[in-house]
């Protein structure tokens, strides 16, 4: 929370946190136990109290840098014997932050602003820019077995993080404050050990991780405080292929630019995992009245949270190729392309609580009511190379919230090679053409007639199958 207003996003049920500029924080309050009825969730709760500015101009700046020459090297002979040719390190790290606050109108309007810029360049263990004209795995072995002979792959990351806050003292008893904090983060080559930096690394693009709020507080009497506020969290998060790798669907390049991995060498090249995009928005409204006396601290309030979470997954060829010591042995087929959206229609909470002090004893008690309503937004049929998600209507949760609505469509009837069925649910598209393009190895895999999914799916899923040669497939046919 910031200033008592929630800033969690929708990803991972709020588990993915925003990047706040720490320069805006006056103090941080942590609640580790003894949660009250006001608390939405159990466990650790944190509230950041932001700086307002004030009647005096004040600012500051800080710079942090770690030169590469300060970095140690723990590439020991034991690690080399285990097949490690390069270790994680920090090649370049710096971060600077400037802040300024002060009055716009003395005793009336104040401002606070800060800007952070950071750069992190991190060489990744066992990643190499292999020699040109050499097959990747062959070049990887050459680089690994001759430490220092090849340029190491670097995960380059940068972030710009501006924040601004305005406070208006409307009267002696009333105040309005608002802030906006935005983190613009970019990683040019996100990867793991064994990945080809040029083709298997991911462009991690987050042009917006933003939070903001507006809050009104009024002291109605020496014992009575009124609060009302609105906050939001907006995130735009993409994992993309390197330029030139993503290909138009069903073209020769789409089949060729497929992710390849060798499980014996621990390498990955040609393309990374499926592209993905996450675009969650979450908003929060609250209002509360507090009554404070010497013995009692009573608070009654209401809040609601709502938002939407669209996302997608996409991969060249809708599969990954698996090798073992250079020999093809399996494929992993995906249910891509996949585009879904979930909405949080209501996350309503009503609460009343009291903290009663009796000499050295404090009693905390309260009542709370919660109501949650969410939905999976209906969509048209989505047809991939190995999976089909049929058209379906909105799926409302809890089910009682959708009483009287037509049931969601969840069955699909797809034409596969050698079958005559062509029926499909209302609103779906013809599915014959994509299925005709499946490779022979997919058609004759045991127990896998073609589909990995015939029901509506909200998550990317996969099925691993043996790689069967065309000759074996022809004999079995």
Tally of contiguous helical segments:
6
What's the story with the biggest beta sheet?
13 strands, antiparallel
User: How do the SSEs run, as a string of H and E?
Assistant: EEEHEEHEEEEHEEEEEEEEEEEEHHEH
**Category from helices, strands and their pairing:** mainly beta
Mean pLDDT: 84
Look at the structure and give the CATH class of the largest domain: Mainly Beta
Overview of the molecule:
- The chain is mostly beta strands.
- The protein has 2 domains: 367 residues, Maltoporin, Chain A (Beta Barrel), CATH 2.40.170; 92 residues, no CATH class.
- It has 6 helices and 22 strands.
- Strands 3, 4, 5, 6, 7, 8, 9, 12, 13, 14, 17, 18 and 21 form a 13-stranded antiparallel sheet that branches. The protein has a 5-stranded mixed sheet with strand order 11-10-15-16-22, covered by helices on one side.
- A hairpin with a 4-residue loop joins β6 and β7.
- It is globular.
Would you spell out the secondary-structure blueprint of this structure?
Blueprint: E1 25-31, E2 45-50, E3 58-66, H1 77-81, E4 92-105, E5 109-128, H2 136-145, E6 152-169, E7 174-190, E8 202-221, E9 224-240, H3 252-256, E10 259-262, E11 267-269, E12 275-278, E13 281-292, E14 296-314, E15 319-324, E16 327-334, E17 338-358, E18 361-376, E19 382-383, E20 388-389, E21 395-397, H4 432-436, H5 440-443, E22 462-466, H6 470-476
Parallel strand pairs: 10-15
Antiparallel strand pairs: 1-2, 3-4, 4-5, 5-6, 6-7, 7-8, 8-9, 9-12, 9-13, 10-11, 12-14, 13-14, 14-17, 15-16, 16-22, 17-18, 18-21, 19-20
């Amino acid at each position: 929370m910031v200033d008592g207003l929630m800033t969690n996003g929708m990803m991972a049920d709020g588990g993915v946190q925003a990047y706040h500029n720490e320069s805006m924080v006056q103090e941080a309050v942590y609640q580790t136990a003894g949660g009250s009825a006001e608390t939405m969730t159990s466990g650790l709760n944190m509230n950041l109290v932001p700086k307002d500015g004030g009647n005096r101009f004040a600012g500051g700046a800080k710079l942090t840098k770690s030169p590469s020459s300060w970095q140690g090297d723990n590439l020991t002979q034991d690690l080399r014997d285990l097949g490690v040719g390069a270790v994680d390190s920090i090649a370049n790290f710096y971060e600077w932050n400037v802040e300024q606050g002060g009055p716009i109108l003395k005793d009336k309007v104040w401002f606070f602003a800060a800007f952070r810029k950071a750069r992190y360049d991190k060489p990744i263990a066992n990643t190499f820019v292999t020699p040109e004209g050499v097959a990747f795995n062959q070049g990887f072995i050459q680089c690994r077995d001759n430490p220092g002979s090849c340029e190491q792959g670097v995960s380059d990351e940068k972030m710009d993080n501006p924040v601004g806050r305005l406070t208006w003292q409307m009267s002696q008893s009333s105040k309005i404050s608002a802030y906006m904090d935005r983190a613009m983060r970019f990683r040019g080559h996100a990867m793991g050990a064994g990945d080809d930096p040029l083709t298997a690394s991911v462009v991690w693009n987050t042009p917006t991780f933003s939070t903001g709020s507006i809050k009104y507080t009024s002291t109605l009497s020496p014992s009575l405080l009124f609060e009302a506020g609105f906050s939001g969290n907006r995130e735009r998060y993409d994992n993309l292929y390197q330029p030139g790798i993503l290909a138009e669907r069903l073209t020769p390049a789409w089949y060729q630019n497929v992710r390849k991995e060798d499980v014996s060498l621990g390498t990955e090249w040609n393309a990374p995992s499926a592209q993905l995009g996450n675009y969650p928005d979450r908003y929060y409204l609250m209002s509360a009245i507090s009554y404070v006396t010497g013995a009692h601290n009573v608070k009654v309030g209401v809040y609601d949270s709502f938002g939407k979470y669209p996302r997608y997954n996409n991969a060249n060829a809708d599969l990954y190729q698996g090798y073992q010591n250079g020999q093809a042995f399996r494929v992993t087929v995906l249910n891509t392309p996949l585009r879904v959206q979930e909405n949080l229609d209501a996350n309503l909470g009503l609460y009343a609580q009291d903290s009663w002090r009796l000499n050295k004893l404090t009693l905390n008690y309260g009542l709370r009511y919660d109501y949650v309503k969410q939905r999976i937004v209906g969509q048209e049929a989505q047809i991939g190379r190995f999976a089909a998600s049929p058209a379906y209507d909105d799926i409302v949760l809890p089910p009682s919230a959708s009483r009287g609505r037509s049931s969601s469509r969840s069955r699909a009837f797809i034409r596969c090679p050698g079958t005559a069925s062509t029926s499909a649910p209302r609103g779906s598209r013809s599915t014959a053409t994509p299925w005709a393009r499946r490779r022979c190895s997919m058609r004759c895999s045991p127990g896998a007639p073609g589909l990995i999914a015939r029901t509506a799916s909200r998550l990317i899923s996969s099925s691993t199958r043996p790689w069967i040669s065309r000759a074996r497939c022809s004999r079995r046919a």
